[in-house]
Write a structure and sequence with these properties.
heterodimer, A: 11 strands, about 0% helix, globular, B: mainly beta, six-stranded mixed β-sheet, five-stranded antiparallel β-sheet, 11 strands
Protein backbone atom coordinates (compact mmCIF):
# COMPACT_ATOMS: atom_id res chain seq x y z
CA UNK A 1 0.00 0.00 0.00
CA UNK A 2 1.19 3.53 -0.72
CA UNK A 3 0.29 4.80 2.73
CA UNK A 4 -1.80 7.87 3.47
CA UNK A 5 -1.58 10.35 0.61
CA UNK A 6 -2.08 14.06 1.11
CA UNK A 7 -2.17 16.91 -1.35
CA UNK A 8 -0.97 19.52 -1.85
CA UNK A 9 2.31 19.18 0.05
CA UNK A 10 2.73 22.93 0.13
CA UNK A 11 0.22 25.71 -0.32
CA UNK A 12 0.83 29.45 -0.17
CA UNK A 13 -2.23 31.63 -0.41
CA UNK A 14 -3.44 35.08 0.49
CA UNK A 15 -5.75 35.94 3.33
CA UNK A 16 -9.38 35.52 2.36
CA UNK A 17 -8.81 32.80 -0.22
CA UNK A 18 -10.36 29.35 -0.03
CA UNK A 19 -8.03 26.45 0.71
CA UNK A 20 -8.84 22.78 0.14
CA UNK A 21 -6.63 20.01 1.49
CA UNK A 22 -7.08 16.43 0.35
CA UNK A 23 -6.43 13.04 1.86
CA UNK A 24 -6.56 9.46 0.67
CA UNK A 25 -6.43 7.03 3.61
CA UNK A 26 -5.00 3.53 3.59
CA UNK A 27 -7.39 1.11 1.95
CA UNK A 28 -9.41 -0.81 4.52
CA UNK A 29 -8.93 1.66 7.34
CA UNK A 30 -12.21 2.78 8.88
CA UNK A 31 -10.99 5.76 10.89
CA UNK A 32 -9.68 9.01 9.45
CA UNK A 33 -8.24 11.89 11.48
CA UNK A 34 -7.30 15.46 10.63
CA UNK A 35 -4.64 17.04 12.88
CA UNK A 36 -2.97 20.44 12.75
CA UNK A 37 0.61 20.99 13.95
CA UNK A 38 2.18 24.30 14.96
CA UNK A 39 5.25 25.15 17.00
CA UNK A 40 3.13 26.82 19.66
CA UNK A 41 0.36 24.24 20.08
CA UNK A 42 1.85 20.99 18.81
CA UNK A 43 -0.45 18.39 17.25
CA UNK A 44 -4.13 19.23 17.71
CA UNK A 45 -7.07 17.12 16.62
CA UNK A 46 -9.44 18.94 14.30
CA UNK A 47 -11.95 16.22 13.42
CA UNK A 48 -12.21 12.48 12.94
CA UNK A 49 -14.45 10.17 10.97
CA UNK A 50 -15.51 6.56 11.47
CA UNK A 51 -16.87 4.79 8.40
CA UNK A 52 -17.13 8.16 6.66
CA UNK A 53 -19.28 9.67 9.45
CA UNK A 54 -17.91 12.62 11.46
CA UNK A 55 -17.63 11.57 15.10
CA UNK A 56 -15.90 14.45 16.86
CA UNK A 57 -15.45 17.88 15.31
CA UNK A 58 -14.92 19.74 18.58
CA UNK A 59 -11.40 20.67 17.51
CA UNK A 60 -12.50 22.54 14.41
CA UNK A 61 -11.56 26.14 15.23
CA UNK A 62 -14.61 27.89 13.82
CA UNK A 63 -17.13 27.93 11.03
CA UNK A 64 -14.44 28.79 8.52
CA UNK A 65 -13.29 25.16 8.72
CA UNK A 66 -15.24 22.28 7.25
CA UNK A 67 -14.39 18.65 6.52
CA UNK A 68 -16.06 15.99 4.42
CA UNK A 69 -15.57 12.33 3.73
CA UNK A 70 -17.79 11.44 0.76
CA UNK A 71 -16.44 7.89 0.55
CA UNK A 72 -13.97 5.54 2.23
CA UNK A 73 -11.07 6.61 0.05
CA UNK A 74 -11.23 10.38 0.13
CA UNK A 75 -11.54 13.27 2.55
CA UNK A 76 -11.20 17.04 2.28
CA UNK A 77 -10.53 19.81 4.75
CA UNK A 78 -11.63 23.22 3.58
CA UNK A 79 -10.84 26.64 5.01
CA UNK A 80 -12.92 29.56 3.76
CA UNK A 81 -11.91 32.33 4.15
CA UNK A 82 -8.32 31.61 5.18
CA UNK A 83 -6.46 33.78 7.71
CA UNK A 84 -2.73 34.08 8.57
CA UNK A 85 -3.31 32.29 11.89
CA UNK A 86 -4.34 29.19 9.93
CA UNK A 87 -0.73 28.76 8.81
CA UNK A 88 0.36 25.32 10.00
CA UNK A 89 1.07 21.79 8.84
CA UNK A 90 -2.12 19.80 8.42
CA UNK A 91 -1.86 16.05 8.80
CA UNK A 92 -4.27 13.36 7.80
CA UNK A 93 -4.01 9.96 9.50
CA UNK A 94 -5.94 6.71 9.25
CA UNK A 95 -6.29 3.64 11.43
CA UNK A 96 -8.12 0.36 11.62
CA UNK A 97 -10.81 -0.57 14.19
CA UNK A 98 -10.10 2.47 16.36
CA UNK A 99 -6.57 1.38 17.18
CA UNK A 100 -4.13 3.98 18.42
CA UNK A 101 -1.61 3.02 15.78
CA UNK A 102 -2.22 5.87 13.38
CA UNK A 103 -0.66 6.04 9.94
CA UNK A 104 0.10 9.64 9.04
CA UNK A 105 0.50 11.26 5.69
CA UNK A 106 3.43 13.56 5.00
CA UNK A 107 1.31 16.63 5.72
CA UNK A 108 0.22 19.74 3.88
CA UNK A 109 2.16 22.85 4.84
CA UNK A 110 -0.15 25.85 4.57
CA UNK A 111 1.07 29.44 4.57
CA UNK A 112 -1.52 32.21 4.54
CA UNK A 113 -0.06 35.64 3.77
CA UNK B 1 -9.80 16.73 29.49
CA UNK B 2 -6.89 14.47 28.58
CA UNK B 3 -3.45 16.00 29.02
CA UNK B 4 0.04 14.89 28.02
CA UNK B 5 3.21 16.66 29.13
CA UNK B 6 6.62 15.74 27.81
CA UNK B 7 10.03 16.64 29.14
CA UNK B 8 12.56 17.81 28.36
CA UNK B 9 11.54 19.92 25.36
CA UNK B 10 14.93 19.34 23.79
CA UNK B 11 17.83 17.01 24.53
CA UNK B 12 21.29 16.90 23.06
CA UNK B 13 23.33 13.73 23.54
CA UNK B 14 26.68 12.48 22.41
CA UNK B 15 26.66 9.26 20.44
CA UNK B 16 26.59 6.39 22.94
CA UNK B 17 25.30 8.54 25.81
CA UNK B 18 22.14 6.88 27.15
CA UNK B 19 19.20 8.89 28.50
CA UNK B 20 15.44 8.89 29.09
CA UNK B 21 12.52 10.96 27.88
CA UNK B 22 9.52 11.52 30.13
CA UNK B 23 5.80 11.60 29.36
CA UNK B 24 3.31 12.46 32.11
CA UNK B 25 -0.36 11.98 31.37
CA UNK B 26 -3.84 12.55 32.70
CA UNK B 27 -6.71 10.63 31.15
CA UNK B 28 -10.04 9.38 32.43
CA UNK B 29 -9.45 5.71 31.76
CA UNK B 30 -6.40 4.81 29.70
CA UNK B 31 -6.93 2.58 26.69
CA UNK B 32 -3.36 2.93 25.47
CA UNK B 33 -0.25 5.09 25.54
CA UNK B 34 1.66 5.51 22.30
CA UNK B 35 5.11 6.67 21.27
CA UNK B 36 5.75 8.12 17.85
CA UNK B 37 8.86 9.38 16.10
CA UNK B 38 8.72 12.40 13.80
CA UNK B 39 11.50 13.38 11.40
CA UNK B 40 11.65 16.93 10.00
CA UNK B 41 9.16 17.45 7.18
CA UNK B 42 7.48 14.09 7.78
CA UNK B 43 4.43 12.80 9.55
CA UNK B 44 4.73 11.00 12.89
CA UNK B 45 5.64 7.33 12.69
CA UNK B 46 4.33 4.80 15.20
CA UNK B 47 6.84 3.16 17.56
CA UNK B 48 5.11 1.52 20.54
CA UNK B 49 1.81 0.88 22.29
CA UNK B 50 1.63 0.32 26.06
CA UNK B 51 -1.63 -0.73 27.69
CA UNK B 52 -1.06 -1.25 31.38
CA UNK B 53 1.27 -0.21 34.19
CA UNK B 54 4.40 -2.31 34.31
CA UNK B 55 4.38 -3.08 30.62
CA UNK B 56 7.60 -2.63 28.60
CA UNK B 57 8.28 -2.67 24.86
CA UNK B 58 11.65 -2.65 23.09
CA UNK B 59 12.82 -1.87 19.59
CA UNK B 60 16.51 -1.69 18.79
CA UNK B 61 17.98 1.00 21.09
CA UNK B 62 14.60 2.14 22.40
CA UNK B 63 12.65 0.83 25.37
CA UNK B 64 9.31 2.23 26.53
CA UNK B 65 7.91 1.71 30.00
CA UNK B 66 4.60 2.65 31.63
CA UNK B 67 3.39 3.50 35.13
CA UNK B 68 -0.03 4.74 36.21
CA UNK B 69 1.00 8.36 35.73
CA UNK B 70 3.89 8.46 33.29
CA UNK B 71 5.85 6.72 30.60
CA UNK B 72 9.55 6.74 29.84
CA UNK B 73 11.34 6.23 26.58
CA UNK B 74 14.83 4.99 27.32
CA UNK B 75 17.45 5.39 24.63
CA UNK B 76 20.50 3.17 25.06
CA UNK B 77 23.75 4.04 23.28
CA UNK B 78 22.02 6.34 20.77
CA UNK B 79 23.31 6.94 17.26
CA UNK B 80 22.98 10.09 15.13
CA UNK B 81 20.15 8.43 13.16
CA UNK B 82 18.07 8.42 16.36
CA UNK B 83 17.86 12.22 16.10
CA UNK B 84 14.18 13.15 15.77
CA UNK B 85 11.24 14.49 17.73
CA UNK B 86 9.61 11.86 19.93
CA UNK B 87 5.91 12.27 20.61
CA UNK B 88 3.85 10.64 23.33
CA UNK B 89 0.07 10.27 23.02
CA UNK B 90 -2.83 8.77 24.98
CA UNK B 91 -6.11 7.23 23.93
CA UNK B 92 -9.06 7.07 26.31
CA UNK B 93 -11.15 3.97 26.94
CA UNK B 94 -14.35 5.75 26.01
CA UNK B 95 -15.41 4.25 22.67
CA UNK B 96 -16.55 7.68 21.54
CA UNK B 97 -13.05 9.08 21.95
CA UNK B 98 -10.81 7.25 19.50
CA UNK B 99 -8.60 10.22 18.70
CA UNK B 100 -5.19 10.49 20.33
CA UNK B 101 -4.12 13.41 22.51
CA UNK B 102 -0.48 14.23 21.84
CA UNK B 103 2.19 15.86 23.93
CA UNK B 104 4.35 18.61 22.50
CA UNK B 105 7.29 16.28 21.98
CA UNK B 106 10.96 16.01 22.89
CA UNK B 107 13.40 17.09 20.21
CA UNK B 108 16.41 14.76 20.40
CA UNK B 109 19.73 15.52 18.77
CA UNK B 110 22.50 12.90 18.86
CA UNK B 111 25.91 14.19 17.93
CA UNK B 112 28.62 11.93 16.50
Amino acid sequence: DAGVIQSPRHEVTEMGQEVTLRCKPISGHDYLFWYRQTMMRGLELLIYFNNNVPIDDSGMPEDRFSAKMPNASFSTLKIQPSEPRDSAVYFCASSSLGAGELFFGEGSRLTVL
Amino acid sequence: EDQVTQSPEALRLQEGESSSLNCSYTVSGLRGLFWYRQDPGKGPEFLFTLYSAGEEKEKERLKATLTKKESFLHITAPKPEDSATYLCAVQAQDTGRRALTFGSGTRLQVQP
